[in-house]
């Protein structure tokens, strides 16, 4: 087990030498260790030889751990048929009955690495052979069945887990909830999403760590169906339980409320978002700006767009044009000019940060020719990036020439 000092070659040489002197009658733990050593280095032919030799010199028996190691590594390297063959030979050739570790590794290979109809059917037949299914075997089956769209079978296993008191893994729970919501969207019905909500409530009751992600998935799905009451209830529960909604949750709710014309509630959610220190993005601002634009709330729309630019977000031209039109409509020409300066300076800074020096130079030149002043922040950014490339004089010459004019 000192292979880190010996190295791969010397480790294998010593193991072979020891075998000739001891007849390969190593303790199971040594065989397990060497199998892991060989599999991690993808020496599968050596692994097979070791299995056969160890079996012959130990009255045909090999530990379940050893076989589990081989099955796991074969499966993860795409050698599914070999893993299956080894699994089926456990009782007949190696005189070893599969334990839960072996079952779990075999189900992992079939359900998570392959996930075809054929492999999931095979996994299901293996699963039914397990006397006491545990979290991992059930969770592997949930993932496999969900991936091939067999939600009814997945729900049956989930129900069985509830009966025997086995908890699903975090990823399995989220995949099941996600697949139910996706199916609901395809069918154009909210029925499957309601089933997802029921599962989420079970997860919450059991205090599983996946509830935060589960809430996010379900709320997004309900927002697409515009189920305001259910969304409001779940969002309130999230906050009540101290969960921190992700940006995508806030955006889904705000966008839904804005589309329904419920601007006051959308604004309230935006305020909660700021209070919880979740930074908005382009999607957040676009929804609120367009909703306020439809109400002709030019002041709010302008403030939101200014705040958006302050965070470094570049608005879509439709969003910018909407605010500009509102300002002109209300004779706010000074604010139009101010907004244009902010936008152009942000565009210049973005070009600088992306390393597009030629484009940044041309942008700065065009702005100055049009009489658009560079902000101090934009000037500093422009000079910094050109200085790093040894071209500071080029920028200074441009700025000095413009200043003289």
TrEMBL record:
Leader peptide range in chain numbering: none
A Pfam family that the UniProt record links to this protein: PPR_2
Keyword Repeat: yes
Repeat (PPR) residue spans along the chain: 134-168, 211-245, 246-280, 281-315
UniProt cross-references to Gene3D superfamilies, sorted A to Z: Tetratricopeptide repeat domain (1.25.40.10)
Keywords: Repeat
Sequence similarity: Belongs to the PPR family. P subfamily.
Alphabetized NCBIfam families for the sequence: PPR
Listed PANTHER family: OS03G0856100 PROTEIN, OS12G0638900 PROTEIN
Protein name: Pentatricopeptide repeat-containing protein
Organism listed in the record: Stylosanthes scabra
